[in-house]
Specification:
The chain has two domains: 2-94; 103-155, no CATH class. It has eleven helices and no strands. The mean pLDDT is 85. The chain is mainly alpha-helical. The two termini are 55 Å apart. It is 70% helix and 0% strand.
């Protein structure tokens, strides 16, 4: 939805450069009241001697940016692969448990990379065990057990 709006905004801006330069046409999600008090935005839309040069440059640059965005976001646009999949309830059920980000895996890989640099002679299995011990919070889990249970777990190896 946002990608489509960006592309439509750029396409309409090419046809209406005056509205783009003066700031009269903006995205629908923009807080127009906040823009009226924003000093940077007001500086951008204030008339200058260079406006004719800026218009000439924008006539060349904006279509190129629009075409680049169409290529980059093609899977998410109206006829894109993910536009239809967004409303597919079957796909939603299948991917319900998939994390929305990869922060944990990136953190683990960063930790593993640090271990490999600090201990270059350690084996891969030792590094993996160490990382899993830390991130699975094994020590905390063992500490929650009674003394007998934790002793039995530690001796079971």
């Amino acid at each position: 939805m946002y990608y489509q709006e960006i592309i439509e905004y750029l396409e309409s801006s090419v046809e209406n450069l005056d509205g783009f330069i003066t700031g009269t046409t903006v995205f629908s999600s923009v807080n127009k009241q906040a823009l009226k008090t924003d000093k940077i935005f007001q500086t951008f839309i204030s008339p200058l001697n260079y406006d004719t040069n800026v218009q000439a440059i924008l006539q060349v640059v904006l279509p190129g940016i629009c075409q680049t965005f169409k290529c980059l976001f093609s899977d998410y646009l109206i006829k894109g692969v993910w536009k239809e999949a967004r409303f597919d309830e079957n796909l939603r059920q299948k991917t319900r448990s998939v994390p929305k980000h990869n922060k944990l895996s990136e953190t683990i890989l960063r930790h593993l990379d640090r271990i490999l640099r600090e201990k270059p002679t350690s084996t891969l299995i030792a590094n993996e065990d160490y990382v899993m011990f830390i991130y699975k919070k094994t020590l905390e889990w063992i500490r929650e057990k009674s003394n007998d249970a934790s002793e039995k777990l530690l001796n079971a190896t």
